[in-house]
Amino acid sequence: MTQNPTLTRRPISQTAKVLSLTPRGKNLYQLTLKLATLGPFADPGLFARLRSWGPAPAAYPLLDRPFSIHRYRPNQGELDFLIRPVGLGTNLLTQCRLGDPIQLLGPLGQGLGNLIPDYKNRPFYLVAGGVGLAPMANLIDQSKGPNHLFYGEREGQSLIDKAYLTSFAPNFTAVSEDGLGYGEKGLVTQSLKAALERERRTIFACGPQGLLAALAPLARSYGVNCYVAAEAYMACGLGVCLSCGHYLVDGSRIRLCQDGPVVDGLLMDWEKS
């Protein structure tokens, strides 16, 4: 896997402030933070680690939590994150109030620009499963080329608010496995396959591993590139603990927090990892 060492970034640890916590659907929130120090957060797929709790009564999580950059407004010094509370850490973050401090470490990882330097000028098929929607807004905000977003949830009631989705992704296909809500019934891979039949484009995806694994053979069959922002459990986010290791088809192993999270999906060994 070819990486560009010139794009390695030094993460900054800082105390950000909560500007807003906006509901964006059932059990889904947009957390907006004001940064004390600006950093190069623009590259789609980069992430940060967040912590809203103190150093450690037994009731609090030991580790902070990683989140993809959802949107970045450098002129205002603001970062957005999409958070779906599913455990203690994410629930604590969605209980924050205006002005509360958040410990932030970032930017972390390697984004899409590490593999496609001219990504702003490329047309993509963007594929998002659940909160894998987060990095898609950052790419669309910067993009000069036409993109189409394929966004799926297991349940239609979990789909993000349609008006908000349209505000950053005017060209989208939403699907849900139960067919409820405003989405079509089915899988994003089915909708993507139909689009690839009409026009072939590079794929950029983020979501559960099962979705990303399903995209690799689909991309190969249509002869298109497929880049993914891969998800993994991680403890440090700095390449030390090796908890986010993932195998490549050549048998080598990478650290998604440092060598990714954006990687070439066709080089990943999805069965082994």
Name the CATH superfamily assignment of the largest domain: Nucleotide-binding domain of ferredoxin-NADP reductase (FNR) module
Question: At the first level of CATH, what is the class of the largest domain?
Answer: Alpha Beta
The name of the CATH topology of the largest domain is Rossmann fold
Envelope shape: globular
User: Numbering strands along the chain, what is their spatial order in the largest sheet?
Assistant: 4-3-7-1-2-6-5
What's the main sheet like?
Answer: 7 strands, antiparallel
Number of domains: 2
The tally of helices reads: 6
CATH architecture of the largest domain: 3-Layer(aba) Sandwich
- The residue ranges in which pLDDT falls below 50 over 5 or more consecutive positions are 1-7
- The total of beta strands comes to 16
Order of helices and strands: EEEEEEHEEHEHEEHEHEEEHE
Report the mean per-residue pLDDT as an integer. Answer: 91
How would you classify the helix and strand content by structural class?
alpha/beta
Proportion of residues in β-strands: 25-35%
Structure description:
The protein has 273 residues and is of the alpha/beta class. The protein has helices at residues 88-93, 134-142, 162-168, 188-198, 209-222, 256-259; strands at 12-25, 28-34, 47-51, 65-68, 71-73, 78-83, 101-108, 124-129, 147-153, 172-176, 184-185, 202-206, 226-229, 245-247, 253-255, 262-264. The strands form 3 sheets. Strands 4-3-7-1-2-6-5 form a 7-stranded antiparallel sheet. A 7-stranded mixed sheet has the order 11-10-9-8-12-13-16, sandwiched between helices. Strands 14-15 form a two-stranded antiparallel sheet.
